[in-house]
């Protein structure tokens, strides 16, 4: 700590240059924080997937519907404990695409197959007994100020009603929680029966089946048995683990991981060159000063440490500021994006950001620091270096 | 007085490209504890090379330099750095202060290498600045000081860790006559009242007059050692 003022003074020797470099580091880590948070949210579905659950959907496309008549046949497959189903509704709320997932499901079956959703028994009963009843996750309810008993209207973009209306009205009959994952709380679930009766087309079909198996070790065997049932039928199936399904679902938006890596790669390469140039220039300009430190008795290692510390300090100050700003920005837009599970800067994004900062600081700082370390005092004082 | 510095057969050869340049040749010299020696000679005579070797900034090609019982030629780079921090203070022609630090912080620099707490470092730096007559300039940056004041700060930095030896390379070379005399009187005071052994390179005969002894070099060889006027 006693060297901090020396490091700080060295860093701000050229204030404008350092501030501009610092700003570029701030922007880089602002992007890093926001993009990592998005990537993390997209991967979260796969992370939270259960090993004892399979998803059966159309073999050819996730948007192809499957006959609900498949339900008893899947239930009869040995090793299957329980089966639920759901469909993608989409829709808009308040003239904007719904910022939360909307799925018609069969309440009893769904709550049994997805035990991570916690709903008070009286609200579960009310949901079952209310034809247009819907339950919403706590975070969605909090965002829109919905309470049990409120009525909500969604506008369908895929599913018009028989009478041609696109307006679907629901009564909020329950607010569920998901103690292990706030992301699971970003949905509205309503009665499949209501959906099936009222929709204009594709009645008697569902988007996918959720299959809970008795033994996770036999999940693959069960998946093959389900798909074998419907092979060569007009609606062949593809059964996969929930994790593979979640990853496939996320890929509909593109390979988020690859996009994020590509953008951040370009950003950090630029930062590396920019910051590296700043540090190299800063050391070049200060050779006589570094030689004086050595003359006074600072060892080669101490001088190396001072230069590396300058580089680390610059990247850490800029990087932490960038992550804080990313957290604030995500906080501001996060409410609108909560359906995607984007919550803010998580501990894992913060710690990976810190690792990137340390690596960047070292890569940028080491070459000029090594040069400073190898400096011969006599040559430097004599103006030969 | 006993010899603080014992130099025997000191030779320094530099490699410049394919050419070898002998900067010093077989120098024998004793400098007594508490002495004030002026090293004089024409440009290229080897006086700065000798000063660098005495200050532990460079290593000899052959021969020995023994300072207060320590054989410098046997020390590693790291050991020399530690030795310099404890035993030598440096004063240069162009002051060589760190422009980003205040005078007080510049003077404190050598004390960063000690285990002294921050308050003690500040106190000692203040005492050193007081000794050179700049007690009220501690918070000024070097660019806010005159040349003479900068050199005083450099002298305060040289003495703050209480070294036995002060090595000065043309300390008045960048100053006008009047200021130069003030600096030389300050060095004389440090030699006389505080017992500092001073080795000073100078081109200026008037500066050399402030020393007790004069050592003349020419073409890397010691040509005369005599009492100053």
Main sheet strand line-up of chain A = 6-10-7-9-8
Q: State mean pLDDT of chain A (0 to 100 scale).
A: 87
Give the structural class of chain B: alpha/beta
- What would you call the shape of chain B? globular
Which class of secondary structure composition applies to the elements of chain A?
Answer: alpha+beta
How much of the sequence lies in strands of chain A comes to 15-25%
Task: Spell out the helices and strands of chain B N to C.
Answer: EEEHEEHEHHHEHEHEE
Distance from N terminus to C terminus of chain A (CA atoms, Å) equals 30 Å
What summary fits the major beta sheet of chain B? 6 strands, mixed
SSE string of chain A: HHEEHEEEEHHEHEEEHEEHEHHHHHH
What is the overall silhouette of chain A?
elongated
Radius of gyration of chain B in whole Å, from Cα? 17 Å
Present the secondary structure layout:
The complex is a heterodimer of chains A (385) and B (229).
Chain A: H1 4-11, H2 15-47, E1 53-58, E2 66-67, H3 70-75, E3 80-86, E4 92-93, E5 96-97, E6 101-105, H4 107-113, H5 121-129, E7 133-137, H6 138-144, E8 151-155, E9 167-176, E10 187-191, H7 192-198, E11 205-206, E12 208-213, H8 219-229, E13 237-241, H9 242-251, H10 256-285, H11 287-295, H12 300-334, H13 347-374, H14 377-381
Parallel strand pairs in A: 6-10, 7-9
Antiparallel strand pairs in A: 1-12, 1-13, 2-11, 3-12, 4-5, 7-10, 8-9
Helix pairs in contact in A: 1-12, 2-9, 2-10, 2-12, 10-13, 12-13
Chain B: E1 3-16, E2 19-32, E3 36-40, H1 47-54, E4 62-67, E5 70-71, H2 77-87, E6 88-91, H3 103-108, H4 118-131, H5 147-159, E7 165-169, H6 177-194, E8 197-201, H7 205-208, E9 213-218, E10 221-227
Parallel strand pairs in B: 3-8, 3-9, 6-7, 7-8
Antiparallel strand pairs in B: 1-2, 1-4, 4-5, 9-10
Helix pairs in contact in B: 4-5, 5-6
């Amino acid at each position: 700590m006693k060297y901090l003022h020396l490091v700080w003074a060295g860093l701000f020797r050229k204030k404008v240059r350092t501030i501009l470099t610092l700003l570029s580091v701030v922007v880089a880590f602002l992007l890093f924080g926001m993009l990592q948070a998005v990537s993390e949210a997209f991967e979260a579905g796969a992370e939270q997937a259960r090993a004892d659950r399979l998803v059966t959907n159309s073999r050819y496309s996730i948007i192809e519907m499957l006959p609900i008549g498949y339900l008893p046949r899947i239930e009869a497959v040995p090793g299957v404990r329980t089966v639920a189903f759901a469909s993608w509704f989409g829709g808009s709320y308040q003239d904007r695409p719904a910022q939360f997932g909307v799925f018609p499901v069969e309440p009893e079956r769904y709550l049994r197959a997805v035990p991570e959703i916690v709903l008070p028994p009286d609200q579960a009963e009310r949901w079952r007994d209310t034809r247009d009843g819907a339950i919403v996750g706590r975070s969605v309810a909090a965002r829109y100020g919905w309470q049990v008993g409120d009525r909500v209207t969604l506008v369908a973009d895929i599913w018009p009603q028989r009478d041609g209306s696109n307006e679907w009205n629901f009564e909020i009959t329950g607010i569920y929680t998901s103690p292990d994952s706030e992301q699971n709380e970003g949905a509205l679930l309503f009665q499949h029966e209501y959906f099936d009766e009222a929709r204009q087309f594709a009645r008697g079909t569902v988007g996918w089946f959720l299959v809970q198996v008795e033994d996770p070790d036999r999940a693959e065997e069960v998946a093959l048995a389900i798909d074998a049932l419907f092979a060569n039928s007009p609606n062949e199936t593809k059964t996969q683990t929930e994790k593979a399904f979640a990853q496939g679902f996320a890929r509909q938006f593109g390979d988020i991981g690859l996009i994020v890596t590509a953008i951040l790669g370009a950003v950090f390469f630029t930062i590396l060159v920019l910051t590296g140039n700043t540090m190299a220039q800063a050391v070049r300009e200060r050779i006589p000063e570094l030689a004086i430190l050595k003359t006074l008795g600072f060892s080669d290692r101490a001088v190396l440490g001072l230069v590396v510390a300058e580089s680390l300090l610059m990247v850490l100050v800029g990087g932490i500021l960038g992550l804080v700003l990313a957290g604030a920005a995500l906080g501001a837009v996060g409410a609108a994006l909560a359906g995607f599970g984007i919550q803010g800067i998580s501990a894992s994004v913060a710690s990976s950001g810190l690792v990137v900062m340390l690596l960047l600081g070292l890569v940028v700082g080491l070459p000029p620091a090594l040069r400073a370390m190898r400096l011969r005092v006599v040559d430097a004082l004599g103006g030969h270096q | 007085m006993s010899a603080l510095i014992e130099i025997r057969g000191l030779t320094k050869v530099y490699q410049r490209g394919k050419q070898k340049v002998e900067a010093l040749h077989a120098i024998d010299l004793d400098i007594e504890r508490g002495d004030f020696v002026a090293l004089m000679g024409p440009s290229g005579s080897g006086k700065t090379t000798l000063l660098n070797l005495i200050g532990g900034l460079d290593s000899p090609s052959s021969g020995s330099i023994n300072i207060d019982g320590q054989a410098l030629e046997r020390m590693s780079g790291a050991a020399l750095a530690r030795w310099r921090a404890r035993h030598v203070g440096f004063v240069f022609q162009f002051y060589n202060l760190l422009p980003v630090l205040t005078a007080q912080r510049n003077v404190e620099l050598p004390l960063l290498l000690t285990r002294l707490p921050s308050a003690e470092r500040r106190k000692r730096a203040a005492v050193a600045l007081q000794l050179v007559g700049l007690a009220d300039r501690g918070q000024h940056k070097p660019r806010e000081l005159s040349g003479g004041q900068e050199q005083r700060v450099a002298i305060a930095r040289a003495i703050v860790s209480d070294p036995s030896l002060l090595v000065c390379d043309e300390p008045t070379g960048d100053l006008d006559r009047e200021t130069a005399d003030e600096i030389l009187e300050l060095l004389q005071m440090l030699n006389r009242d505080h017992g500092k052994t001073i080795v000073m390179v100078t081109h200026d005969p008037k500066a050399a007059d402030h020393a007790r002894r004069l050592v003349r070099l020419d073409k890397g060889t010691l040509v005369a050692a005599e009492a100053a006027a």
